[in-house]
Amino acid sequence: MVHLTAEEKSAVTALWSKVNVDEVGGEALGRLLVVYPWTQRFFDSFGDLSSPNAIMSNPKVKAHGKKVLNSFSDGLKNLDNLKGTFAKLSELHCDQLHVDPENFKLLGNVLVCVLARHFGKEFTPQVQGAFQKVVTGVANALAHKYH
Amino acid sequence: MLSTQERIQVAQVWDLIAGHEASFGAELLLRLFTVYPSTKSYFKHLGFCPDETQLLTHGQRMLEAVGVAVQHMDNLRAALSPLADLHAQVLRVDPSNFPLLIQCFQVVLASHLQGEFTVEMQAAWDKFLTGVAVVLTEKYR
Fold it and tell me: CATH assignment of B4-140?
């Protein structure tokens, strides 16, 4: 469970309502693949990942980023039950996709940087704190069903 | 370790920070303490709620050290040796804290540079700061 104060919850909701989830998703996934290139190991079928430009403009990266972030967005509506919300996805990432849960933390951190980039000063230390709690909660929920 | 292109990225970003070490460093520390409160355990001397002057003073010191690292990207070990000794013998900051500081550093960069904070800059700075952290913790044992 994620423990956000009432202020943190409203800060997260308010900021998220201004996020272009589709675009931010593609950017976050793209940045993950560039900044931590070993994460490309999961995306052999995505085609050209040969340079930062290739990655950031790759249509499969954008599409997948959009999918991932829409899922994350669902989590934001269920902060009191992240483990339940992500149970099926957790099983999928363990049993079928074989993704080391460390990668969820990396993506969460990159997402926070992308939000900071978009929102500038509005992304105060308090707002950052709230979002870091959320991404940690989501990462833990996605790891919860691993065995 | 850093390619020529990466060194250029690091230097370009540093040009934007140079002269603002205190305010940048203060914001970095404020974010670190707000987002990761356990890190305050290493700053007892700043008190439970460090004030702006303390953050500016200590922030400046930290960012000036980053500046030294930028000037000596080719030879971090020699340039940061005294700081590495300090961290190994006196400060003994658990190595797991450096990624937290690096995350906050990236957030400060991203929120200030916004549209100018390219993916290449983020990658180069993450690699550079991780290298600095390795050097600072290398003498721990």
Answer: 1.10.490.10
pTM of the model: 0.95
b/e sequence B20-51, b meaning 16+ C-beta within 10 Å: ebbbbbbbbbbbbbbbbeebbeebeebeeebe
Do B119 and A52 make contact, defined as CB atoms within 8 angstroms?
A: yes
Residues of A in contact with B29 (CB under 8 A): none
Domain boundaries, chain B: 4-140
B108: number of Cβ within 10 Å: 24
What is the per-residue DSSP string for A94-114? IIIS---THHHHHHHHHHHHH
- All residues at 6 or more sequence positions from B94 whose CB lies less than 8 Å from its CB, including other chains: none
Closest residue in A to B109 (Cα) is A117
pLDDT at position B47 is: 83
